[in-house]
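## tool: complex_structure
## caller: assistant
## args:
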Amino acid sequence: MSTESRIRCPKLRQRIMSARDAAALIPSGVNVGMSGFTGAGYPKAVPGALAEHIRAAQARDENFRISVWTGASTAPELDGALAEVNGIQMRLPYQSDPLCRQKINDGHMEYMDIHLSHVAQHAWSGFYGKLDIAVIEVVGVTEDGRLIPSSSVGNNKTWIDQADKVILEVNHGQSAGLEGMHDIYYGTALPPRRKPIPLTRPEERFGEKYLICPPEKIIAVVETNAPDRNSRFSPPDENSQRIANHLLDFFSREVEAKRLPPELLPLQSGVGNIANAVMAGLNEGPFNNMTAFTEVLQDGMLAMLKSGKLAKASATAFSLSPEANEELANNIDFYRDRIVLRSQEISNHPEVIRRLGVIALNGMIEADIYGNVNSTHVMASRIMNGIGGSGDFARNGYLSVFMTPSTAKGGTISTIVPMVSHVDHTEHDVQIVVTEQGLADLRGLPPRQRALNIIENCAHPDFRPQLRDYFERACNSKRGMHTPHLLNEALSWHHRYEAFGQM
Amino acid sequence: MSTESRIRCPKLRQRIMSARDAAALIPSGVNVGMSGFTGAGYPKAVPGALAEHIRAAQARDENFRISVWTGASTAPELDGALAEVNGIQMRLPYQSDPLCRQKINDGHMEYMDIHLSHVAQHAWSGFYGKLDIAVIEVVGVTEDGRLIPSSSVGNNKTWIDQADKVILEVNHGQSAGLEGMHDIYYGTALPPRRKPIPLTRPEERFGEKYLICPPEKIIAVVETNAPDRNSRFSPPDENSQRIANHLLDFFSREVEAKRLPPELLPLQSGVGNIANAVMAGLNEGPFNNMTAFTEVLQDGMLAMLKSGKLAKASATAFSLSPEANEELANNIDFYRDRIVLRSQEISNHPEVIRRLGVIALNGMIEADIYGNVNSTHVMASRIMNGIGGSGDFARNGYLSVFMTPSTAKGGTISTIVPMVSHVDHTEHDVQIVVTEQGLADLRGLPPRQRALNIIENCAHPDFRPQLRDYFERACNSKRGMHTPHLLNEALSWHHRYEAFGQM
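## result:
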């Protein structure tokens, strides 16, 4: 495709430059808002060029670091490249890059983990300081200078609004057919001027198809031609399939009991192999005319749209395998009729999640016997990725489900523990816990009944005797029978794993 | 006042009976939804008569227990009386009764702690089982059988809707002038049929002044004449005043920085002496034309309405001293123009709290150095009261503030600890921590910076060296620098207190 066809606004064609020249416009010490959500729609060229720039500055003994705000996770070309040169002072609100993770856990990078629905309003309110520059990937620019969003929306609207200067990456590698798939709502405001968000069905559109940016803000336009991260999914393993089966059985029972309608309620699904297995199960299952109101569309949901099981889907980003991405591009008109991509302040908004009655399906690192969930920290201290949108959906959804295999690291770790080493979702927000062993339905249960239910249904049989023993001794200790714990043993499983390699 | 003036519907006058006869209509094993929120508007006579009934059954060796669902806390006449005879199988969603607390912590009563905004929808969805009977205090009944709500609304609408049978208590002791103060919204629904809640200002009315109940459901009407719990507040002590001052200074700085408007944003305030001190401070402070969107109106907010500092207030219940209650009754027309009492599904609704941008002010038991907050559990296991609405407001508000004196039990307990023994509000939901020592503004800070901020600003000087020592050793342990912890020491402060009476 030609430059003219993608950058239809002549004025902006005058600002085309190399990634290297654009990166040189970013000084040290600034806060930079970048596009990108679950490895989709992130800038492909400027971050790498900036990393080179930083490396050169460091060779001159200059300290050069920036803070990077995104939608969610990006890719090696962004987080990886900047982390490698120690170029990131502060990162928010979510990341999943291995190199970033290492830098954060080694203490060489600051990281703030934030509910994804909170980010736009906090930034707008100035809680994170001033946003200086935005670097945003788009599919193209219209004649009148409106921006065609890319494979993720994330916080792009907010970054463009808040930044003094904007650098655009126009990615020729993204399907031009994405134009028209987005719905960018410009009706949010700071209190006391907020109005109801007019969304009552997942597929409703009430915004603009384009991102709006005053052209004078745009200091550079960089052309790229590169795919998104597009990582391949493993085929569902046995544990994932078992988890999916437990969940499908549960849904069937809920429909039978008339606690869920036959088409279920709008689905939110976290990212990963278990989530994809659940979607594969739903694609084979008895439910029809389903909808999704979620953050991320993975392969599983794309297949469900294709089969017709899923009627409509709303998200803020794609996260596809190369094959699924090709399927999307080849049938973009079909999918554009069925998919709406929104800003993450809407995709994750408590108001609309609560109103729609979303079924929240999220993975976790570990749960404790009382149903508190750790989604972010390994052994209390090391961050894995971040809370992402799991809190937005778990707290406000109609049903809140957390899933994990019952063991990790070859069976040396039990993901059901006496006390989680970090809490991201409190007992109040966790209704259903599922492992390959079974499903614990915690609705209406007080803590000790939750414990029995989780131990007997979800824990791996190898760890059940130990868990029962802890729980019984905690009950017998008479320290307090509401949530019985042994203070000097509650975290001993984690401690034991670190000391001896086995919980 | 006469029976005729309070029970204007002739049909319902025929169902007047004694509390004893009404209580006899409640069989063992049922789920009973009772009115009552923060010691206001709870039934005064039937629970005590039921307790007598239970005692008699127990004397005949019959097992007689019920489950009690309320709005929030009640009083000795309800929770106390039923707990005393071990008459409660299961209690939800909140309580603060000393005897209940003891029974729960001794393992003789089950208790489920629930976000107050979740209760109505969970009950409606059948997550807690079937509601059999509702026992609701009202101020009176209109000619056509509509019910005039009392000094709290709580979950009354939901209990009346969901229960098969309803017992009314008409309390002659409640001011007849409460009529017209309430706004009962009948527009909520289960998904997928939910619509936006049409509230954009705290004082807006969009519902009914009355509770609606099909007369055939009403199996008994009991007349009472008794005051609410109406507990006296202590005058603000030095620590409460210091906390209030830190907070007022913070608000002034935020207004100056234009992160808050001059009239602030709608205030939510938890219950208790610190909350009352903050309101007293605001009543003397520089802010005018404030509003409140809160659960409970205490003496402090009533005084602010009187002075004109507070223009309008929305809540679901009063919680007043005897003097303030008299002030309310004597000037009920003045207050009716300024106060709206709503169902707790609206007063605590994430949608409207987020839209209004509420400033959430809540107390806590302890916070850890990373800003996780424990609102409910003493030393991990013993429940104090419950999470109440603190999660609804902290998660969805514009600003989330948690307050506590820096020490408890004569200085033997530090309320700032390495790791909280129970998490109700995760780091993501805690922006401002205040003690009498100072205020920690955690917005935009990653975990280690939060720790330094909390230790140096909020911890008591007697405990700062120990906290710094823990934090430094955790950092040096290199177990993970995102949230440095020592697994075998994280809960040692609580353990030490239990073993030696001193953290």
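## assistant note: Residues 224 and 333 of chain B are 24 Å apart (CA to CA). The radius of gyration of chain B is 23 Å. Handing back to user.
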